[in-house]
């Protein structure tokens, strides 16, 4: 069984059938290509895919016809058998495959590496390559896994299903509005500061009272280191009182 490939996160529901899409490249319910659901690419049916592999092997035995047919059909992502069965080869990313990559897939990997080399060791090589389709949910052969390709059938592009909610908008009961709190008065913006406003604010402020000075206070400041704090405060208050009375 194939393992899920790293890449973008898959949706929880298929956008076409709204079922769980699984882990493969195609939706496990409707078979649409999960990476490009509106492209119209669906997983090729198992039986049709096996018939295409066997028919490609039979046509390959007529090598000149196979090469000529392959040269025409590889541009559309088809081998000779796939052009008969209306199957297409695309990249795992959902993008169209280039003719060069198609030739590597069909001739180098599928016919030379897995075909001729497989026949040298065992006759089961091509059978295992084709039988891998039954063990892979994406209907891939071994060479598909090696090259990174998918085989799809083209149908009309589906319309994405609309997500249906389980209730109407009218049935939704909203919670009551929160109670209003006390109204807060907004703080008015401060006026811009100018030179005139600075002068006016300086004039409106009270002027500080000048500190009185006298020779006795200057002498007391010189003696302060030798006096206690209590003695200094007592003598200073006495001198200030004398200056007030005389002045």
Helix and strand arrangement:
Layout: E1 41-43, H1 46-60, H2 63-73, H3 80-85, E2 87-91, H4 99-121, H5 125-131, H6 142-147, E3 149-154, H7 195-204, H8 215-223, H9 229-246
Antiparallel strand pairs: 1-3, 2-3
Describe this structure in words.
The termini are far apart. The protein is 43% helix and 6% strand. It has helices at 46-60, 63-73, 80-85, 99-121, 125-131, 142-147, 195-204, 215-223, 229-246, and strands at 41-43, 87-91, 149-154. The radius of gyration is 46 Å and the shape is rod-shaped. Among the domains are: 41-154, no CATH class; 214-247, no CATH class. The protein has 9 helices and 3 strands. Strands 1-3-2 form a 3-stranded antiparallel β-sheet. With 247 residues, it is mainly α.
Summarize this structure briefly.
Among the domains are: 41-154, no CATH class; 214-247, no CATH class. It has nine helices and three strands; from the N terminus they run βαααβαααβααα. It has helices spanning 46-60, 63-73, 80-85, 99-121, 125-131, 142-147, 195-204, 215-223, 229-246; strands at 41-43, 87-91, 149-154.
């Amino acid at each position: 069984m194939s393992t899920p490939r790293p890449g973008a996160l898959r949706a929880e529901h298929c956008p076409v059938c709204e079922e769980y899409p699984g882990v493969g490249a195609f939706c496990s319910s409707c078979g649409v290509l999960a990476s490009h659901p509106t492209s119209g690419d669906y997983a090729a049916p198992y039986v049709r895919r096996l018939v295409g592999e066997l028919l490609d092997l039979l046509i390959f035995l007529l090598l000149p016809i196979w090469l000529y047919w392959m040269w025409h059909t590889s541009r559309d992502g088809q081998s000779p058998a796939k052009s008969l069965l209306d199957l297409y080869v695309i990249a795992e990313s959902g993008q169209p495959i280039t003719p060069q990559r198609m030739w590597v897939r069909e001739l180098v990997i599928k016919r030379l590496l897995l075909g001729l080399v497989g026949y040298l060791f065992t006759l089961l090589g091509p059978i295992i390559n084709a039988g891998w389709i039954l063990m892979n949910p994406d209907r891939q052969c071994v060479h598909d896994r090696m090259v990174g390709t998918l085989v799809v059938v083209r149908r009309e592009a589906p319309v994405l299903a609309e997500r249906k909610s389980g209730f109407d908008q009218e049935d939704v009961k909203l919670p009551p509005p929160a109670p209003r709190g006390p109204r807060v008065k907004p703080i008015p913006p401060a006026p811009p500061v100018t030179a005139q406003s600075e002068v006016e604010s300086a004039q409106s402020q009270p002027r500080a009272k000048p500190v009185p000075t006298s020779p006795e206070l200057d002498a007391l400041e010189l003696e302060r280191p030798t006096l206690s704090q209590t003695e200094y405060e007592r003598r200073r208050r006495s001198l200030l009182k004398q200056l007030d009375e005389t002045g």
